[in-house]
Prior knowledge:
Elements: H1 11-24, E1 33-35, H2 42-50, E2 55-58, H3 78-87, E3 90-94, H4 108-122, E4 127-131, H5 136-144, E5 149-153, H6 162-166, H7 180-191, E6 197-199, H8 208-211, H9 227-240, H10 251-266, E7 275-279, E8 289-290, E9 297-298, E10 309-313
Parallel strand pairs: 1-2, 2-3, 3-4, 4-5, 5-6
Antiparallel strand pairs: 7-10, 8-9
Helix pairs in contact: 2-3
Amino acid sequence: xxxxxxxxxxxxxxxxxxxxxxxxxxxxxxxxxxxxxxxxxxxxxxxxxxxxxxxxxxxxxxxxxxxxxxxxxxxxxxxxxxxxxxxxxxxxxxxxxxxxxxxxxxxxxxxxxxxxxxxxxxxxxxxxxxxxxxxxxxxxxxxxxxxxxxxxxxxxxxxxxxxxxxxxxxxxxxxxxxxxxxxxxxxxxxxxxxxxxxxxxxxxxxxxxxxxxxxxxxxxxxxxxxxxxxxxxxxxxxxxxxxxxxxxxxxxxxxxxxxxxxxxxxxxxxxxxxxxxxxxxxxxxxxxxxxxxxxxxxxxxxxxxxxxxxxxxx
Length: 314
């Protein structure tokens, strides 16, 4: 994600950032994006496309981590979106409106959906991802918009409802988890086989000092080491409590949600044939991850709980 300090707003910055990431993990194919910013021009998009940048990420101003330079008026970016449509680039949206008037963190996603509909109508060939959806309304809106509008769903939003984060800052993220009915809609979308919905981790390794800050708690949940297991376990739990039926969980649909649908949307079907195996066992989610001198500590989601073991197959 490009919401660094300062934000990644140019091709040069994005390529330098990619080099730093690849130095850490050369076996990962990093898809780079720019931060939608007032300094961007049509020429920025042309240059980015030629350099292999995948897309542009939009953050509404002040809504989430490092979004102070984010969007206030989407209409002012229509020339950018038009050029992105021509270049077949991806627009990734953090789909919330800033808190103002009657808009709060509770209804910020629902209030954003008319913006999404307008963008889809004005730029019908633009590939748009509504990231980390949390509501019934968002799921239904994405279903009803054009084929180039899709949504991602996180592992943690398949587990959480409002009661889980209202008293636990470690479970606080943006957008916030909503009601049982909203979570049920996400579970059914994830298992549906509909290519409009695929996994996106939105995993945020905020240090524990920022999660328990004297100021505002950092919004984000760290799921990455166990993200695949968390998705499977959320679906299993839904069957156990009767939210879903066993026959709703089809292997091909789950493979599509976790891998196939997203790869197809981004045109990456042929890049890798790697496979994983999940096995039930006695592995526990780590209580805390930290560096050697313990100056940086991150708490994973569902710390201490049992989970499956994930193995990469040769």
